[in-house]
Every structure is written in C-alpha cells, then in structure tokens.
Amino acid sequence: MSTTLHTNNMVSPLFLATLLLVSSAFYPLSCAAAPADGTTDTSRDALLCLKSRLHGATTAMATWNHTTAPDFCTWHGVSCARRPRQPPLVVALEMEAQGLAGEIPPCIANLTSLVRIHLPNNRLSGHIPPELGRLSGLRYLNLSFNALNGTIPFTLGALHNLSSLDLGGNGLSGEIPALLGSSPALEYISLSDNFLDGEIPLSLANSSSLRYLSLDNNSIQGAIHASLFNSSTITEIHLWHNNLSGAIPHFMMFSSKLTYLDLSQNSLSGVVPSSVANLSSLTSLDLSHNQLQGSIPDLGKLAGLQSLGLSYNSLSGIVPPPIYNMSSLNYLTLASNNLEGTLPSDLGITLPNLQTLSMANNHFVGNIPASLQNASSMMYIHMGNNSLTGVVPSFSSMKNLEYVMLYSNHLEAGAWTFFSSLANCTQLLKLNIGENNLKGNFPANSVANLPKSLTALTLRSNNISGTIPLEIGNLSSLSMLYLDTNLFIGPIPFTLGQLRNLAMLSLSRNKFSGEIPPSIGDLHQLEELYLQENQLIGSIPESLASCQNLVALNLSCNTLGGSISGHMLGSLNQLSWLLDLSHNQLSMSLPLEIGSLINLGSLNISHNNITGIIPSTLGNCVQLESLHLEGNLLQGSIPQSLSSLKAIQVLDFSHNNLSGTIPEFLETFTTLQYLNMSFNDLEGPIPTSGVFSNTSGVFVQGNPYLCANFAVQELPRCFSSESTKEHKFVIPVLIALSALAALALILGMFIFWLKTGYKSNENIVHSYMELKRITYGDVIQATNSLSLANVVGSGQFGTVYKGWFDAEDGTVAVKVFKLNQHGALHSFIAECKALQHIRHRNLVKVITACSTYDPVGNEFKALVFEYMANGSLEDRLHNHQRGSLSLGGVICISIDIACALEYLHNQCTPPVVHCDLKPSNILFDNDDTARVCDFGLAKLIHGCSSGGQSGTTSIVGPRGSIGYIPPEYGMGGEISTQGDIYSYGIVLLEMLTQKRPTSEEFSDGLTLRKYVEASLSRTQDIQPNLTTEVGDQCVDHIPNLQECNTFALEHICALRLFKLGLLCSAESPKDRPTMHDVYGKVTEVKEAFFSMDNCSNDLTLLRQKGGR
Description:
It contains 22 helices and 59 strands. The chain is α/β, with parallel strands linked by helices. Among the domains are: 97 residues, Ribonuclease Inhibitor (Leucine-rich repeat, LRR (right-handed beta-alpha superhelix)), CATH 3.80.10.10; 180 residues, Leucine-rich repeat, LRR (right-handed beta-alpha superhelix) (Alpha-Beta Horseshoe); 147 residues, 2-Layer Sandwich (Phosphorylase Kinase, domain 1); 238 residues, Transferase(Phosphotransferase) domain 1 (Transferase(Phosphotransferase), domain 1), CATH 1.10.510.10. The strands form 8 sheets. The chain has a 27-stranded mixed sheet, with no helix packed on it. The protein has an 8-stranded parallel sheet with strand order 14-16-18-20-22-24-26-28, with no helix packed on it. A hairpin with a 2-residue loop joins strand 2 and strand 3. The two termini are 68 Å apart.
C-alpha cells in the first residue's frame, strides 16, 4: 500500500483520511482488548504487558510491580495526568538508554492517552507496531538509535497531533510513507541512519508545518523537489549521504528561514545555483562530495554564513573575492576541485574566525599569506597538492592548531622559523609538509621544542640535509614519522628508540650510514619500518625480534651483512605485507624459521650471497603472492613443499645454482603470472600446462640441460634418456669448437687487415683481443637466442638486444649488426675504431666485441655495451615515458651531452666526430645521467684541421639522420666537429620546444630553427611554462643577478638556451661556436639557474624523482 501511495504523489487529503479510517479496522485491539486506558486496570495491564515483552532492563523496570507499587504512576519512566475523582491517564513513557531489549508489543497502543514516547538509545528490535497509529493524542515519538527493522508504518500518518518524529539510527528499510506529509502538526522529522530508499515524498516536501527534516545516511534517490527548498517554514534540511541526483533546485526570494542545508555526499550535478544567495538566514551550507561543475557563485549576501563546504566536486575558476570577506566564516572547505588563483594577502584579517581551512587538491598558486596567523582560532589547515610557493609562514598565534597539511607544493623552509613557531601550537597532532622544496639542515632546537602532543610528522621528499637531531626522541606521542627521500646523512639516531608509540617509521632513500641502532627494537608498537636505499652497514640487529607487531619491513639496497637471524624471523610472525632484504650482502643459509611467516604476502631476499638450499619450511608461507630469491648462491632442488603456495603470482629463482628438474606442481598454480628460473643448472623437460602455456610469463634460459617437448624459447627438443646423456657431452664440444672458430676468424681478420694496409685496424683487433672474449654461443645464450622479447632498439645497421652474460657485467646491451645491409660492416669497423680507446662518464661504455661465424657459416659481428636502464631522450620527449622535461632537466641533459662531445672533439687523439647525434642516440643510465651512444657513423679526424682525411674510414650512406644533418653535409662538404655542434643545437631546440625537427608542421621552407628564431619576439609560443618575454639586458648578462631581480630567473635561463641552440645550428659552420665554448655557456646557465633558492632543488631531485 505504501508503494501505491508513493507513486501517486498527488493523493488528496480526503482520500488519505478515508484510507486511515478503513485501515484501522484491520488492527484489532490487543492485550485485554480494552477500548481505552480510562480505567486503572486497563493502564496497569497495558504497562505490565509492555514489561512482559521487554527485557534486559531489570533495574529500569524493577519498580513496575503492581504488588509492591500499586500506583503505576510512580513506576520508573511513567508519567501520568491525574484527574479529580477519575483514574489517572498515562501520558508519557520515557526511558532513554536503559538497556531495554526485545520487541515493542502492540499492547502499547492500549495506553491511548499517550502524548510522549521517548525510548532512544536502547536495544529494541523487531518492527514498529502499526497500532501506534491509533494513539491520536501522540505528539512526540522518539525510537532513535535502537535495532528496529522493517518499514515505517504508514499508519503513523494518522497521528494528526504528532509534531516530532525521530526514528533515526535503526535498520529501517523501504520507502518513506507518503502519508507522513499529511500530518498537519508535524514540525520535526529525523529518519537518518537507516536503509530507507525511494524518493522524498512530494507530500512531505509540500508540508506547511515542517521545520526540521533529516534523512541523512540512507539510500534516498531521485531529484529534490523544488517545493522543499521553497518552503516558508523549514529551517534545517539534512540530506547528506544519499543517492540524490539531478540539479539543485533554485531558491525563491522568500526562502529566508532556512539556516542549515546539507546536501553533501550525493550525486547532484549541474551548477551551484546563484539563487542560493537568496537564503539570507543561512548559517551552514554543505554541497561537498557531489558532481557539481562550473564556478562558485557570489555568496557575499550571506552575511551570517559560518560554514561553507564545496569540496570534492568539479568546480573551476577562481574563488569569488566576496567569499574571502565573509568574516563570520569559521569553516571553509574547497578541497578537491579544479579551482585556481592566488590566496589574498589579507586572508587571515578578513576571515579572523576561521577554524578550518581546506583548499587541498586544486591549482592554487602563490604564497600562503602570512596574515593567516591572525586567525588565532585556527584548528585545521589543509592546502596540500597545489602549486603554492614561497616560505612556509609562522603559526605562532594559532594555539589551538591541530592539523597542518601542506604536502605536495613548492614551499620552502627559509630559515625554518615556521618550525620554531610550532612550539606555541600545544595542541598540534599532525604536521605534513612532505613533497616540497624544504632544504637546509634539520633544526635541532626547533625539533626539541615541537609540541609533545604531535602524533604524526611527515617531511618526506624534500631536500633536507644534515643529521637528524637526537632531540627527535623527545616527541613521545609520535606514532608516524616519515623523513624518507631527503638528503640526511650520518647515523640513525638511537633516541628513536624512545618513541614508544611509533607505529610507522620511514627513513628510506637518504644517505644514512653506520649500523641500524639496536634501540629500534624498543619500538614495540612499530608496524611498518622502511630503511631501504641508504648506506647502512653491519648486521640486522637481533633486537628487531622485539618488534612483534611489524607487518612491513624493508631494509633493501644497503650494505648489510652477516646472516639472517632465525630467532628474529620466528618472532616477526605478524609480518603480512612485506619483508624485503634484497640488494645487500647477507650470507649464510636461509633459516628454517622463515616458515613462521605464515601471513606474509611478499618476500624478497634477492641479490645477496645466500647459500645452501631453499628451506622446505618456506612452504608454510601459504599467503605469499610474490617470492624473489634471485641473484644468490642457492643450491639443490626446488623443494616439493612449495606446492602449498597456491596464492603465488610472482616467483623468481633466477641466477642461482639450483639443480634438478622443474617441479610439476608449478603447473597447478592458477594465480602464477611470472616465473623466472633462468641461469641455473636445471635439467629435463619443462612442464607444458598452466603458466608454462604462456611463454611470455616464463623464463628458463641459461639452463643448458633443459629441453622441451614443444617449441618454447628455442630450447632443444627432449630426447630419450640415452640421447640426453650424449647431449651433455656434445654441448661442451660445440662450445670448444666455436671458441676455436672465433680465434681462427680473429687471426684471419688480423692477417687480412695487414695485407690491405689498414695499419690502424691492427690496433683495433689487438685492443678487442685484450677484452673479455665471447663466442657466438655466448651471445645467443645471453639474448635468449636473439629473442624478439629482448629487443630494445633497432637501427639501419643493427638491432640491439637486452642480455646477460655474468654477474660481473650484469645486464648488457648487445648490438648485432645486420651484415646483409650495405654499409653495416663499415659501421662495425667505424664503431670499433671510435670506441677502442675512449672512456668517459657521458659515453656508453663498450664491454667487448664478437666477430665470428654462426653455425651455418654466415659472418656474425656484435658489440656489447653497458645496459642503459632508463631509456632514451627520444622516449622522454615524444613517448612521454617519464613526463615532460623540466627546465632543470633540459639543463642537466645539455651539460651531459656537451661534456661528451667536448671530450670527443678536444680530448681524444685523433678527434672523433660522432656524425649522428639525435635524441634516440642519447640514453640514460641508472643515475639518470645522459650518455651518448651509437658511433656507427663516427669519423676520426687526423691532425688539427677538421678537413684532414688521412687514414679515415669512409662512411656509407647519409652522414647522419634527417633533421639533424648539417647543411654543409648535404652539399658534399667535409665532415668536421662543427657538424656535431649543428646537431647539438637542433637537439637542444627540440628539448626546449618538444617538437621534432621532422614534424609535419615544418614544411614550405619552415624549419625548427626558423620557427624558434621567429618566435623569440613572442616567446609565449615556445614552452609557455618555461619562457616569458624579458629584456635582453638580463638575458645577455645572467651573472649580474642584481639587475634581474624583477624577472623570473628560470625564464632568463630558458631564453639563453634558445639563443645557444640557434647559435649552434647556424647555417654556416664558421658561425658556430666550438664545443669548448658551448660547454662553457651551458655551464654558465646551469650555475645561474641553480643559484636561486626557488630553483636549487631541481637538480638534486632530478635523479631521485625522474624530473628529467
């Protein structure tokens, strides 16, 4: 029936009244079937009936005894109206928080004179009896915060005298009865914290008496009726955390009584209506956590507004200035929108009563106003994840401050006075200024004076240097300390052991040295400990066994030695997230106690010196999802007990000395996605199903005795047992024969070069014979049989593969030449000549060469280089591998390239011209240092003149790559160092504009150089985030910073680089500078750029954050 009423929102009052009269016939009188409580016996019986159905409140209902207390009006919680010479009438039941339990019986309706029922905060369950609808005199009903369920009886709509209804905090479901809106006296309705659904009944929205409506925290859906917002009586509307949708209705001019409006945490869309300014009595407005768009309207007319919440929407534009002048505001949250602009300098003066200011996750720029400390009542500041700059202001006057969240901005510490000012904030709980540009030494005195109330301190990802002061141990309330990714040095302070409440400690990615202090073991509440990527030595302290609440422990990438303590592992059986001890110098065998880590999800002990066998107890770690044991000295077979690791997803045993066969149980691991058993001594056939059917997720190369019954990774086919035995003897013989063939080939080449007169080639052969010798078989094994999966690059004359020869060389890059390509042999010889004597930190190092024949007699040539793990400049510029280059990144890369070319041109004898400088030939190593590679077109220049050609190798094909070839080469001009300088200039302009010189937009005579040259007068066209129009006086005189104090230094530096790029790419070679001059100019720009405080963090963080 309630559904019918809900769908017909235009039901007439006459129909509702008739329906109530009819429906009342279906509810017979209960208990004694008394028609009313006009007699003493009727009232007493109804109360005793109520007592018999309720329980759990022995004290509250102890007086409900007609034998000891015949006058029920004296019973606890019962109020009566006494009449002369007539029985008293029970008018109220009031028992709040008395522990009442059980179901409300229908006999409560026999107390027909009830005016007030107040039973909140008990444990009442079951349905609300619909018989309550017969209590025609009831004015107040409060059953909130119980365990009632079922639907709201529509019969409550018959209570025409009911003015207050509170059923919040139960488990009620279904729709709100439309009949509730027909009660002419109803002023207060609270149905919050239930499971109600459906729409808000129109009859409720049209109520002429309603003053307070709370439907918070339900599943109410649909649109909001405009009539609800335009009621002349309603003062408070609470609708947060529902499923309301559609636009917010407009507010009429006469909606002036509304003081409180909360529509947060719904799915409302559209804009914030400007008519909200008509709500002149409004004191609180919360529209946060919706899908609102557009700009914030002018709310300046709301002079009494104290609380404004607009966070977690998609609002854009600037904050209207009148909002910053609403002096009554004490709560302002605008977080997580797309707002922009600056904060007014007088913010703390115009909003002196602010207690909460949340503007995080927007695009605000500029400084945090120093006037903010004028808001002395401030308790909560959250401005994280913006683009705020300048020095963190003082907080000295904010004595009630509890939270300061300024992370992910560009803020600076200055003289760290803000840190000292926090001593006055005696209520401070959390301080987070991580991911900013704080630099300088950690101030010991300020740390000592930080409030003892502080529970969380986060300064991660800054440039803070020096040591951590011992006074850190005074912050006895700390539960979280994040100081990772800084420049801290020295030992980890032993006083950290005094922080007995510490649950999370992260000191990773610093330069801490010395041993891990044993006092860390005193942190018995510690749950997460991160010390990775430091310079720690010594053994893992046994005292860590006392940290028995640890769920994550990461000590990787240090120089820790000794063995892994079995006692420690046995004590840390609560580890569930992570145990990472990789990349250290740990030795000895894995203790059996590792099996006690039964809750562990990720275990990494790779790249140590662990010996012995894999302990069978490891199979007890049934929650493991990731297991890394690679890069150790483990022996023996893979234990059968690991078959219990059913949750495993990543399993890596590679680069050990494991033997035996591949266990068949690995086929049954349905979650396994990555399996690496390469470079061991495994033998026999590999399994065929499960993860092995996905060859891209399985790596078994480097196991010479493995075979396959199907085509996989170029493994040999399995033979019978006799054939297998013979196979083991054939392989060494083949290897020996290949080595002899390689030596014979080298000797033959040596004799050939002698006969043909290439005396310089004699030195090349001699040089490479002194390097590590590798065979064709070595190359095939290292590159997984020249697998396509190993290809990392390909050019005109060769293909580059990722490979592995041994632990000494690690991962390498193997360039295999395409000798069927005309000019490839000359390219190999040219590269050998160029690389035989040169060694420089900005050149990719050659490890060795291979010149031999493959098994079918084809000539085979390869060069082996260091592997550059961080990709190429081409990737970063045009494939967005690491994001857009910052100006600091451009400067660093420019320095690296210039340094390499200056070495080739001026420090090599004879000088070397690269001839093919371009972004794809500029790689990045593990430290993100740029290195020049690919000398396949390189040319040696004998004598002082670039025109000298004696003894050089002729170059086949184009002298460079299109777009980077100097003009004189195209007209048959001689190869010279000036050609490299031209290419350098084009690369520099490409980095600054992020436009390829071969882009389609450069046509009809327009080139990248001409584009830049024409745009210098309107510099906003070129990298608007890097440049701005400034005077030539400052551009041409960078060192004189006093003359440029009105300009942004980074813009000046960018323009200097543009001018240098144009100079290097001049049409005529004689107009270009030498590489020595170029290196000097770029160095000058670098020194200027990193001389200012606001820029000095860029270089330091480049290699930590990938800022290049």
